[in-house]
Amino acid sequence: MAQCAKIAQERGYDEINLNVGCPSDRVQNGRFGACLMGEAALVADCIKAMQDVVDIPVTVKTRIGIDEQDSYEFLCDFIDTVVKNSNCDNFIIHARKAWLSGLSPKENREIPPLDYPRVYQLKQDFPQLTLSINGGIKSLEEAKQHLQYMDGVMVGREAYQNPSILAHVDCELFDQTIPVTNTVDAVKALYPYIEQELSKGTYLGHITRHILGIFQGIPGARQWRRHLSENAHKPGADIMIVEKALEMVTERM
């Protein structure tokens, strides 16, 4: 992990985050992810090993518990052990427990109930730490509510499924008065990157799959998704596929 952290820093990343929240079987078989909540000392060792070789922050993303180990005391002990043995001071808390068996990763993101008050309490009990909250946050209004209690908010699936939510973050959360880029211009700004990647042999579909939801809630969004889904994976697919899909949106605006 130390070697990987060094590579990440060399490539310009601002932070290394150790994910102690993923419950998938494949991840568990490699002895990482959410199962590491049961091995807090090992997590601390991993963090310390990375801290020793990089200058950028090394942080932890975790759940509030695993299986039957889901008491508030268990969560506090986990945080306390990691902090005391590694000096890690920045945690992102997914406000759900994880079941290591019986639920798929998708179900683990939906079925265990959210417990935001428990995460708020954690911030009160560890005021010296930078603590961010994650899980089920679908709007900037919700983010603002959480920021009354927490240092930060992580938006995961919603940012992926509805990327345009990010266009308003600077204005609404950081009081910056910069103009909001409209979604059409944001897509066009991707064109040089898409062309560059295509010239390297990257399949168009590997890029467009990540922007299928960018027009969510906008007329033409369905046509955009359909055209990209049906054509971007084809051999020889190029920027014209994206341009045509964008045209299907703009002609309905």
TrEMBL record:
InterPro entries: Aldolase_TIM, DUS-like_FMN-bd, DusA, tRNA_hU_synthase_CS
Family matches, as CDD domains: DUS_like_FMN
UniProt cross-references to SUPFAM superfamilies, sorted A to Z: FMN-linked oxidoreductases
Domain of life: Bacteria
Oxidoreductase among keywords: yes
Record keywords: Flavoprotein, FMN, NADP, Oxidoreductase, RNA-binding, tRNA processing, tRNA-binding
This protein's name: tRNA dihydrouridine synthase DusA
